[in-house]
Design goal:
about 5% strand; mainly alpha; Beta Polymerase, domain 2; about 325 residues
């Protein structure tokens, strides 16, 4: 079985280098177009489109996925079960379809205000819809820097397995990620080189960069549990960076809150906002409706009482998650 998996991975790496990006993108778009036309026949009241590499033209053949965004008018949608099953079938028969973000029109105001600028840029059709609402607040230069930092940190966490196991295949992907943030590409894709690029955005000290790297090694690379001795030791060694970078994990420990710098407070704010937006994009797919708002209630434990606005944002997220039936 291991040998077969190795051959499959080798084939994917080979295909990614062999097929030019423009041809790979065209193939992905044709697959998506045909699939979505069939989908529209059954769900005429659901808006659906592609995002990320397939729409941005940065596909690495067979190494990239086809990601979809779905938009539903309200949370009283009457065909929930049929839609879930259809998405499961689509993913089963065409494994290239990997990630579905499902939003409700009724959540648009909140989403528009809290969506990470760089993550939103990867979904141009959603961005265009947000622009029509005219309620997105302008980001200050400092805020944009922090959003770029958080974006890269989140992308590293999402792509960690590929970075560690197949760095050459991820080179094209990471060039597009870093270029989006106006950061020069790395010569070699690795955890250390990407964390270094993220740290450069905020002009962090070498000491802070090393603390972040240690936290990533202990927490992000530990797929078993963030409550292991290794993770807890890393959080105890750098509680301020652990609290702002991993509030969604820190809240499940017994560690006390510690003071944060203004930059760290802004990082925590953007991390928590990302977490809320992410939960809102997946609420339709979860059978256990209480688990998502409960997660946000736990995150409140990692937010100091002085961060009033951020706590209000979390409360709004909890309310929106409770609205789905």
């Amino acid at each position: 079985m291991q040998k077969r998996r190795f051959n499959l991975d080798s084939f994917r790496r080979f295909s990614g280098r062999l097929v030019p990006t423009i041809i790979a993108t065209l193939i992905y778009r044709i697959i998506a177009f045909i699939s979505l036309q069939i989908f529209f026949c059954f769900f005429k009241d659901v808006k659906i489109w592609i995002r990320n590499s397939a729409v941005l033209g940065t596909v690495s053949f067979l190494a990239s996925d086809i990601d979809l965004t779905l938009l539903i008018d309200n949370k009283n949608f009457s065909h929930k079960i049929q839609l879930r099953k259809s998405l499961q079938i689509l993913k089963k028969w065409i494994p290239l379809f990997a990630d579905f973000n499902i939003y409700f029109q009724t959540d648009f105001k909140f989403l528009n205000q809290h969506f990470n600028t760089y993550e939103l840029a990867r979904d141009p059709f959603l961005l265009a819809r947000f622009k029509k609402t005219n309620n997105r607040q302008d980001r200050s230069p400092d805020e944009l820097k922090v959003e770029a930092f958080v974006y890269i940190i989140r992308m590293i966490a999402f792509d960690l397995q590929g970075i560690v196991e197949h760095p050459q295949v991820r080179k094209k992907k990471w060039k597009s990620y870093l270029t989006l943030c106006k950061v020069s590409p790395v010569t070699q894709v690795s955890l250390s080189s990407l964390l270094q690029k993220a740290s450069q955005i905020l002009e962090l000290s070498v000491c802070d960069e090393e603390k972040i790297a240690c936290l990533f090694q202990a927490i992000a690379l530990d797929s078993e549990s963030f409550k292991t001795h290794k993770c807890l030791d890393a959080l105890k060694a750098s509680p301020d960076w652990g609290l702002c970078l991993f509030p969604q994990q820190y809240c499940y420990t017994d560690l006390s809150l510690v003071p944060l710098t203004k930059t760290q407070q802004l990082i925590q704010q953007k991390q928590v906002q990302w977490e809320i937006v992410g939960l809102l994009s997946q609420q339709f797919l979860f059978n256990d409706k209480e688990s998502l708002p409960r997660h946000l209630e736990n995150i409140l434990k990692a937010i100091p009482s002085s961060q009033i606005q951020l706590r209000l944002n979390v409360a709004d997220g909890i309310r929106l998650l409770h609205e789905i039936t």
